[in-house]
Write a structure and sequence with these properties.
The protein is an alpha+beta fold and 194 residues long. It is built from three helices and 13 strands, in the order H-H-E-E-E-E-E-H-E-E-E-E-E-E-E-E. The longest helix is centred in the middle third of the chain and has 15 residues. The radius of gyration is 18 Å and the shape is globular. The two termini are 31 Å apart.
Length: 194
């Protein structure tokens, strides 16, 4: 099978039809498509997929997508996107009322410490996108919530506009030697507007 970074949109759709293909989940596939669509829009930066970011605290963060550039051998991460951010268990006295917000906020603290200029956390269950901008020490100074229909741009690359959308299911009907099969596939709730 081809390297994930080299897949075309049709190959990703074809792999979703293969029930034995479990090497990428549906959001990873959609992130790969977004990466392929973003890269041509960036001339002096690279779109990275599942690229670990090492923090000073020893925690390795792996955002789904990141935009980075190198100047004089030093990598700068301008933007990071987490789709359904991983659970990071910080020491807490009182558990938070909203676990999704807490998880995104905790991850944002690690990204802020790593001086990632902008961090986005996409919650596919709630169809909400939380953005964190202007890192200072362990916190981002600007936080914003975006819901379905709202548009936003990456701060370092304002010519790139994305929109939060409903994750509409796509259904495929195929004919096989065993008869007809229906497969369900869901679009990422983040759409690149060009």
């Amino acid at each position: 099978m081809a390297d994930a970074a080299d897949l075309t949109e049709q190959q990703l759709l074809d792999s979703s039809l293969d029930s034995s293909c479990v090497w990428l989940d549906q959001w990873d596939q959609q992130a790969q498509l977004l990466q392929q669509r973003l890269q041509p829009l960036l001339t002096e930066a690279e779109v990275l997929w599942n690229c670990p970011i090492e923090t000073d605290s020893g925690v390795d963060l792996t955002p789904t997508l990141a935009i980075a550039s190198k100047t004089a051998g030093v990598q700068t991460i301008h933007w990071a996107l987490d789709i359904d951010p991983p659970q990071i268990d910080p020491p807490q006295i009182d558990p938070p009322k909203n676990a999704a917000v807490s998880t995104a906020h905790t991850a944002s603290q690690f990204f802020a410490r790593s001086t990632v200029a902008e961090y986005w956390s996409l919650d596919t269950a709630q169809v909400e996108l939380r953005t964190y901008r202007l890192p200072q020490a362990n916190e981002y100074q600007q936080q914003q919530l975006f819901c379905v229909g709202q548009q936003l741009s990456i701060q370092a690359f304002p010519h790139i506009t994305l929109q939060v959308q409903e994750p509409l299911p796509l259904y495929f009907l195929t004919r096989t030697t065993n008869g007809q099969r229906t497969y369900s596939y869901t679009q990422l709730p983040l759409k690149l507007l060009i």
